[in-house]
Amino acid sequence: MSDSDTFDRVDSADGGRTGFMIHVVTPYGRQGPSSRVRVFEWLDRTCVPRVLSSYISHWNSSPSHLLQHPIAVLAAERRLRGMASDRPQHLLLHREASPLSRGDLERRLLASSEFAVYDLDDALQWDRGGGRLYRRLAPKAPKALTAVQHADRVIAGNEVLGDWASRHNSDVVVIPSCVSPESYRQKTDYELNDPPRLGWIGSPDNERYLALVAPALREIHRRTDARLTLICRTQPSLGDLENMIDRVPWCEATQHEMLADFDIGIFPLTDEPYSHGKCGYKLLQYGAAGVPAVASPIGVNEQILSELGMPAARDNGEWVEAIFDLLSRSADIRATLGRRARDETQARYSYDAWLPQWRRAVGSLP
User: Fold this and answer.
1) Rg of the Cα atoms in the chain
2) Sorting pLDDT into bands at 50, 70 and 90, what band is 307?
3) Number of Cβ atoms within 10 Å of the Cβ of 2
């Protein structure tokens, strides 16, 4: 069945509430990283009966993409308004119902439901769209505030988001963005590739963060001939850094298979409010595959780095030092780091570890 407008009837034979049915609204289909991680992966692990609406069932909701699918957009807008009129008993709304809404649609959906849950995994409350006209016409910040205020419960992806949401809603639960380590090929050989292989995985909008550490990456390349693999849906855009980059198109199977080929995963971030609201997902992916990593200690990254035993880097000098140090260590030491990272990821950030809390948060368990 399609991600959009699906209707699954499943018996609650797994300990759920008798007669429970949840309406689930996401802005993206399964290929959208945020919706996949925060919603679809949870639904895969439950027998909760649901009605699922994923706007136009795509990973991209940019104006240019929406203009290419006008019939699907009109159908999605009509479907969502019909759902609000039907007054669903239970509702789970992830991020936003529609990229065209200014908050009224989200308010109607949440207010019309008997029990409504809003899921937030980015600092949308600080995303006012910058200079782009279409983002100013439908800004995410007031939309997120409206959703938090009208939800019966908020699920926040980290403490930063949870603290903000708690100012506007009295029922806030923090559940991290989780991974399934069993889905990732595990790194078993910690001898360095020739040349050494750095790696990054992410969405097109986040590739810009790599420019922050371009001087450090060029210096590492100069010293070691290391190359950088990017798993992403983008075209070359990083200037002379492209000389050391190998690009691999993202797909769900690729991310599970290729991370183990990295010698070191990297995760740079800017020190700004929006970055502090991120959920550290790249670090958890590297940890799930048992890959040593270096990251900016911004927001929840600082906590995850400490738990996984990985080095933090704040400026280009520290990035050079941290990466070069990991490359200079013995394979046994890198193996110890990688295995600890996987064990900690499994214990602290896996879907298995958090499934009961998520089911209680959305109301499918008493």
Assistant:
1) 21
2) very high
3) 9
Which residue is associated with the tokens 């991020």?
95
- CA dihedral (79, 4, 233, 281) positive or negative: positive
Query: Do the beta carbons of residue 253 and residue 102 sit within 8 Å?
Result: no
Q: What pLDDT is attached to residue 47?
A: 84
Q: What Cα–Cα distance (Å) separates residue 226 from each residue in 181, 221, 253, 322? A: 27, 5, 25, 14
| In the predicted structure, residue 8 carries a pLDDT above the cut 70 | no
- Res. 176: pLDDT tops 50: yes
Specify the pairing of strand 153-156 against strand 172-174. parallel
pLDDT at 64 over 90: no
Per-residue pLDDT tens for 341-360? 999 999 999 999 999 999 99
Please list, in sequence order, all residues whose beta carbon lies within 8 angstroms of the beta carbon of residue 75, skipping any fewer than 6 positions away.
4, 5
| CB 362, CB 21: distance < 8 Å | no
Q: How far apart are CA 64 and CA 314, in angstroms?
A: 36
Contact 177, 279 (CB under 8 A): yes
d(CA 40, CA 34): 9
pLDDT of 3 > 50? The answer is no
Closest by Cα among 119, 172, 179, 196 to 304: 179
Distance CA 339, CA 64 (A): 43
Region label for 230, one of left (φ > 0), alpha (ψ between -120 and 50) or beta (otherwise) = beta
CA distances from 106 to 37, 124, 351 (A): 21, 14, 27
Is 80 exceeded by the pLDDT of residue 148?
Answer: yes
CB 94 within 8 A of CB 40: no
